[in-house]
Amino acid sequence: MRYEAPSTTREASALLANAKGKAVVLAGGTDLLARLKSGDIEPDLVVDIKRIDTTQSIKRMASGFRIGASVPCVEIGRSAALKRAWPGVVEAAQLIGSDQIQGRCTIAGNLCNASPAADSVPALIAAGAKASVVGTAGRRTVAVEKITTGPGKTSLGKDEIVESINLPKRPPRTGDAYLRFTPRTEMDIAVVGAGVCLTLNGKGEVSKARVVLGAVAPTAVIVADAANAIIGSRLEDSALAEMAAACEAACNPIDDMRGTIEFRTDVSGVLAKRAAKIAYQRAGGK
Amino acid sequence: MAHDTSYTDQDFKIVGSRPPRPDGIDKVTGRARYGADVSAPGQLVGRVLRSPHAHAKIRKIDTSRAQKLKGVKAVITSKDLPDLTEGNRGNYDILENCMAREHALYDGHAVAAVAAVDEQTARKALKLIKVDYKVLPHVTDVDAAMQDDAPVVQPHIQHDGKPSNICNVSQFGHGDVEAGFAQADVIVEKTYKTEQTHQGYIEPHACLASVGPDGQGELWVTTQGHFTVRNLCASLLGMDIAKLKVTSSEIGGGFGGKTHIWTEPLALALSRKANLPVKLVMSREDVFKGSGPTCSTSMDIKIGAKKDGTVTAASATLRYHAGPHPGPWGMLGGMTAWACYDFENVQSIAYDVLVNRPKVAAYRAPSAPMAAFGVESTMDLVAEAIGMDPVDFRIKNAAKEGTRASYGPTYGPIGIGPTLEAVKNHPHMRARLGKNQGRGMACGFWFNFGGQTCTDLNIGVDGSVNLTVGTVDVGGARASMSLIAAEELGIPYDQVKCNVGDTASLGHNDTTEGSRGTFSSGMATIFAARNAIEEMKARAAKTWEIDIEDIEWRDGAAHAMGMQHSNLAPLSLAEIAGASPGTGGPIAGHNEVVADGAGVSFASHICDVEVDPETGATRVIRYTVVQDAGKAIHPDYVEGQFQGGAAQGIGWALNEEYVYGEDGCLQNPSFLDYRIPVCSDLPFIDTEILEIPNPNHPYGIRGVGETSIVPPLAAIGNAVSSAVGVRLDHTPMSPPRVLKAIKEKQAGG
Ligand SMILES: Cc1cc2nc3c(=O)[nH]c(=O)nc-3n(C[C@H](O)[C@H](O)[C@H](O)COP(=O)(O)OP(=O)(O)OC[C@H]3O[C@@H](n4cnc5c(N)ncnc54)[C@H](O)[C@@H]3O)c2cc1C
Asked: Domain containing B115: what range?
């Protein structure tokens, strides 16, 4: 196994493109190292992106935020501006693992690992985040929901690297939230996750909404019916009930040792309602 | 020398205080050496190949390619562990469990092992071993395994004259239960299930084995009982007991799971074949699949009572799975089920049942928590049915001194009544509950054990004392032993250093199990210290040239008694020790004993939970343990045992379970999906120590390590049931199970 730590994304991309055999990108390594140790994968080349300076920081720009692909989640939690703008995304990133994991894990890694239960992904999608992807052919910007295509599968080419995750500037009267259900308080994998982002009009009614569920299907699901159920409402009980029903209908989970189909389906609606209430408050709704 | 072991109400100077444990700093700084922390020059890495099938015939194992791989120094299969058990079926079962012979009996059963120069090579070698399996039908569920048409795990085992998975049936009780039920105003009968759990010790099994061509060997191992490991390994490998020296490392938790041997004989056999030391460390997956978790159970519990709260009859039918070999687990469930109570008519029938799951080993008060879950849940249901407070109902029926226990013996002084009174008067019982919260309480019992013990006490010329015990310290025992030695000798705690000796330095010591460590080694330490005191008095007598009868040992010094000796200043332990080279040589005390008369132990727990009615998630918000310790030598470590047992019980009650697939394979062999509680899942666990002296120990000690895991399943079950208004009868009471119960109740109106 060869290990490379290039200093530019272009070099990294070239290494990947020219690699013979299996090549993988290494960010925080909290997924990758566990898989290497268990013998689950045996790559021929590991390309560490942590030395690439464009991946190393959180930048605040007029258009929003640019979160480098090797920024550990602990740094995301320390960014007051990010927390003010996208508290749901920050909370989701901070749910990953434990203090030790936080010091290493990244949201780009969380996304590219393509686990259906990845915590930051529903929150990122709800917030309208985009991935900046660099390959030998150049750069492209892709909506986060377009990256994951199935458990462990992404739409990235062999030579492509996510260089950063970009969040838009938060529109006025907008709030986001993410909640997950785990049997334990921490060190657990989401049995269900729900990310909600909504914008209110001047009257305090929901004018725009995005409801995204995690761990209930092969990839995170954007539940348009759930969003429609609350658009035009002030989250009255009937609207919330309709939203919960839409979430349950959108679930396509598996039955496994982490949760039954029935349980995941029931809890998806419960969490979406709770997340919507938090997002509503954050958007200034009363 | 025989000693009087009966309780004497002595005043303690140091016993009962809370000094820091001698192993504490090393443990928190990482200097302590656990099973995997020792290496030898030239050591190889050992790895085990495990069956991917729940049940299969092993037609052939081809190791030739693995053997040829560069860096591989030894490959072994059952052929390298010939059967030397000479008809001892128990030992044969152990041999077969350590390495499959004709059959793989569970997912994870060891089938071959390699020793190689490094981990990668060892791993590669495992992949090169080709095992030709013929997959056989399997059974993993205890109830299914009892059916007539179930696949048979061990064809040599018969029940009712034909091959069967029912390997033991035991019965306990007295009176006439049918007549008793006929007198009852209320009868409650209910079926319960508990899923299989693992002890969840943080340190995986690990050892370093070295066997030379001269047939002598050494083993460094994490275990609760190095003498047991030595005897079993020596016998399975055909070695002389005296030629295998076993040293116990620091232990990162055992809870019963390290009372046995697993990969140790494999490491020794690999080392013997490779003629180099072999280090073998289990992965967590290996631990879940290839060590000794506890049983799953299924139980029918029936209690009849009069309206005034008198129980007229109680019966239990218990079905415990044993893994692929017979064990005493159902029997222990049957013995403990009704032990808290004084019932006129009582019965338990217990079945041990073979299934294609790992061999069951002890887990802290083995088998008692499950039976208590059924019994204590039903006790609450009966109390409710007759409109009586559940604590008062238990107090009315509690066993007391003179009660004939359901499993046979007549109790001496015991603590069940006092723990119940303490619960009744505890402020926890009166605290207000909030929305979605519920409170439950439950009782528990464990026998405790004594057994063989051998202890040495050596006094250095500077007056410091080396105490060598042979019981592995799993919970602070070295601190307790030091306190006892210091108390007897009359010296400060810091002057005593307690070590756990290896198997070559002491006579046989039974394993640290059955809550016996402090009870039995405590007893041997008292007598070893008293022997040393006799010797020191003799030295003083020699020095003073007076009769030993005129010397008394007090406050760490020999005092000459009587007016005629009033001019003699006392001789301190240090002074006698300093002079010892000239007065007869080193001063030592020694004791070997079979510590009989372990005092039974009882506990009552109170628990408050909050249940999220929309997700079924349960949070334990307050927990109180009240238990009889006999005498708390070091109260911190007694409280630690109370808290540890409760914490494990909470995990068992709420989330821990072995999940098997249709294929009979374990689906969650990792700490990610086998969910033991993390710190933030638990409240601070409150404790109250009661001290009802054990009449059979000089200090009144009872074991305290196990009883604390007995009540939690039921206490939490009672609390959750009260919070959600529906009875939970299946552990773990995980969110999906609780939510389902809530929804069924809502659907039923
Ligand atoms: C103890 C523990 C607890 C955990 N708890 C959680 C949890 O609560 N919630 C949760 O969602 N996850 C959890 N995880 C999983 C993991 O920590 C997260 O998925 C984490 O965000 C991964 O980030 P990383 O930087 O460590 O990724 P890495 O391990 O470095 O990479 C993960 C995968 O993504 C690829 N990759 C990484 N970066 C890029 C990139 N920039 N471009 C292209 N491909 C890339 C890698 O090749 C690899 O396949 C846990 C893991 C552990 C070990």
From this structure: 36-136+204-251+258-290
